[in-house]
Design brief:
The chain is mostly beta strands and 732 residues long. It contains six helices and 68 strands. Helix 5 packs antiparallel against helix 6.
């Protein structure tokens, strides 16, 4: 033992003699230190792994023996302090180690190439301008305390394959570059990492979705407590791919350019008592997460408050969500992921987030004043007199039946009303949707439904019907529907539907078309398609039936069709800029009693199309059932306007559209019939004049508005429509 201690003495003296500070002290101080050191040697020499104390180092250095090491001075270097042994404390004493941004450079690395080391503490050190500030690799029981990791190119702190790591009272700031984006803290394949009372700010790069404050992947039992994760140009906290049992508590996660918290493909995270404010995207976004628990958070002023996609078994209690563009979003989830535990203690803009699952015989009215309503696997539910705003949807109906919705407004949601997943027997009356981001009304996989007196405006889609059957829509008013042209913003869109009837409705000023359909067995009756940017209607499949509709003042075409075996009777096509009717292709369609008054009335693109343009063909003329079409123009100089007429009011000559498409009995101006513009000739005397305006005004004044149209396009029936009707008629 004496020999070992003597050798320790010699080695230690070499270290002391070579340090910067001991070279500069006086002989008296050396004597005092020497005396203290002899006492230390006599009491603590126990073998080869004896712990060294109070060792001063100059940077760089490899620490390969136990001990307490003190950084001697602030330096500019490009090499690492490399810790390769257990039981080491490195105290920076507030000194700054600055690198030169060299790729691959590391300020401090804890790693042994062959085994896991443990019981390491790094404290009171400032590291700047390396590729990575600190790397903890394959290590256990590691503490990083009261240290600053600033302005590194890739990551401030990286933790790989380690356990029981604690970061306490640290600042990780402005770690980023133009190519990778960078992270403040990166944790991978690790267990039991705790971040406490720390600041993670300014990390990552705007526009780099995979960069930001704290990034966790395939790690378990990570805790982030009482910390500030803010102003990161990327996300605040992101956890991916097998990150389980993540706990975030009492944190301020604010002003990040991405999501405040994003968790993907993990289980059992708990987010509690935290503030998430002014994050540019979502406050909390969960994608394919199992059993998340979100309690007591305040989530404000983001694009979305809480967003869920295919996540299941969520517990949501006591959260305050306010001033977000969208408060709560569950719309990207399949019905399998609607099995949540959402209490009535959550509020959106100070109003209740109402989640009803497996309920029966319930009435929801203004006394509950919900901000959003979600109804799952329920029946016999009524909702009335509500205003629902700023959520993924004002109302979501999932796999429910016998539902009645009346007198409800949907304002500035993603979607106003969303009904799907086999919902049946839905009745909606007097609903209003305005300024919703995607659609006023989205009806998908819903059967046997009625929509009446439905109003919508200023959304990219008015009503969207998808795989819906057995629907009756009447008194629908959609106007000023606009959005990206490639998405064909229309008053009503039908996709994959069957057996739908739309009647006595108006679709105007849509930036694509009033109605778009690729569905079967569509019936359009007494509708008005007015002043749409592209077309009044676009029908891409059949059979369809069109009776008594008006296609007026559309900027390209009144009606575009690609359908077979359809019936188009008593419709009016007037003042459409390019043409009244474009038949892309189709056979065995019947066109009769229609009025065409356009500079170009009809174009058939498929030269092989064969259709009938009157109720009796050339070989079977029946004067008791006359039925051709009126082929005029806005100037009164079209074929039917000036043709020679017979005693029955038909033109004596046929109107040839193209080969195999001939109207053998075109109507003339002498033919007596009621006006098919429907709405303007209210007294049906065959003329449009001031008598119709007076009749309309009398009906409005008496309250009899059920048969009237919204001429002003504001979604309401009132005296403004009297003025609009007057202007329409005098222009004619």
């Amino acid at each position: 033992m004496k020999i070992i201690c003597e050798q320790k003495y010699i080695d230690t003296m070499d270290i002391i003699q070579n340090t910067y500070i001991l070279k500069s002290v006086s002989k008296i101080k050396i004597s005092i230190i020497f005396t203290i050191f002899i006492v230390y040697i006599s009491g603590f020499c126990f073998g080869d792994d004896t712990s060294y104390q109070n060792i001063l180092i100059t940077y760089p250095e490899t620490l390969e023996k136990p001990g307490v090491y003190y950084l001697n001075e602030s330096v500019f270097v490009n090499e690492s302090i490399h810790i390769t042994h257990s039981d080491i404390i490195l105290d920076g004493r507030g000194n700054i180690i600055t690198g030169n941004m060299s790729p691959g450079s590391i300020g401090v690395i804890i790693q042994h190439p062959e085994m896991m080391i443990h019981n390491i503490t790094i404290r009171n050190i400032i590291l700047k301008d390396f590729d990575t500030g600190v790397v903890i690799d394959a290590s256990n029981e590691i503490n990083l305390e009261e240290s600053d990791l600033i302005s590194h190119m890739r990551t401030g702190l990286r933790i790989d394959a380690s356990e029981n790591v604690q970061i306490t009272s640290c600042t990780i700031q402005n770690n980023r570059n133009e190519i990778t984006g960078g992270y403040g803290i990166q944790i991978s394949d690790s267990n039991k990492v705790k971040i406490n009372n720390s600041q993670v700010t300014g990390n990552g790069k705007t526009g780099k979705s995979n960069s930001g404050g704290i990034y966790i992947i395939n790690s378990s039992e990570t805790s982030i407590i009482s910390s500030q994760i803010s102003t990161n140009p990327g996300f605040g906290i992101r956890a991916d791919n097998g990150t389980d049992h993540l706990t975030i508590s009492d944190c301020d996660i604010s002003a990040n350019s991405g999501d405040g918290i994003l968790i993907q493909s993990g289980s059992s995270p708990e987010i509690q008592k935290s503030i998430l404010d002014k994050n540019k995207e979502s406050g909390i976004e969960l994608i394919k997460v199992v059993q998340p628990v979100i309690t007591g958070n305040v989530i404000t002023s983001g694009t979305m408050g809480i967003s869920l996609s295919d996540s299941e078994g969520m517990t949501l209690t006591g959260n305050t969500i306010k001033n977000n563009r969208i408060g709560f979003d569950i719309s990207a989830s399949d019905i399998r992921y609607y099995n949540h535990h959402i209490s009535n203690t959550n509020t959106i803009d100070s109003r209740l987030l109402l989640y009803l699952k497996d309920v029966r015989d319930r009435k929801i009215g203004p006394s509950m004043n919900p901000s959003m309503v979600i109804i799952v696997n329920s029946s016999d539910v009524g909702l009335f007199d509500l205003v629902l705003s700023k959520n993924c949807a004002g109302i979501i109906l999932a796999n429910s039946s016998n539902l009645t919705l009346s007198d409800i407004s949907f304002i500035e949601n993603g979607i106003g009303l969303r009904s799907e997943f086999g919902t049946t027997n839905l009745i909606c009356n007097n609903l209003h949707a305005e300024r919703n981001l995607v659609s006023g009304f989205y009806i998908s996989n819903t059967h046997n439904f009625t929509l009446s007196s439905i109003y919508g405006q200023e959304s990219p889609s008015g009503i969207y019907l998808h795989n819906a059957t057995g629907g009756v829509l009447k008194n629908i008013y959609m106007t000023r529907i606009s959005g990206i042209k490639s998405r064909m913003p229309s008053g009503i869109t039908l996709s994959g539907c069957d057996n739908i009837t739309v009647s006595r409705s108006q679709f105007s000023e849509c930036s694509y078309a009033g109605l778009v359909s690729d569905s079967y067995n569509l019936n359009l009756i007494e509708n008005r398609f007015l002043s749409n940017t592209y077309a009044g209607s676009v029908l891409l499949s059949g059979p369809v039936e069109l009776y008594d509709n008006s296609f007026i003042n559309n900027e390209d075409t009144g009606l575009i069709m690609r359908a077979n075996q359809s019936t188009i009777l008593r419709n009016t096509f007037t003042n459409n800029t390019n043409r009244g009717l474009l038949l892309v292709s189709g056979n065995e369609n019947l066109f009769a009693y229609n009025i065409f008054k356009n500079y170009k009335n009809c174009l058939i693109q498929d030269k092989n199309s064969i259709n009938t343009w009157n109720t009796s063909n050339k070989d079977n003329f029946d004067t008791t059932n006359p039925a051709g079409n009126y082929w005029g123009d806005p100037e009164g100089e079209g074929f039917s306007d000036v043709c020679t007429t017979d005693a029955n009011g038909f033109c004596t000559d046929p109107y040839i559209i193209q080969l195999q498409n001939t109207d053998y009995h075109p109507l003339s101006s002498q033919y007596t019939m009621e006006s098919y513009t429907l709405n303007t000739d209210l007294n049906q005397n065959g003329r449009e004049d001031l008598q119709d305006v007076v009749l309309y005004m009398n009906k409005v004044s008496s309250g009899d508005t059920s048969s009237l149209y919204d001429f002003s396009g504001d979604g309401k029936i009132n005296l403004n429509d009297v003025v609009s009707l007057f202007h329409i008629i005098i222009k004619k």
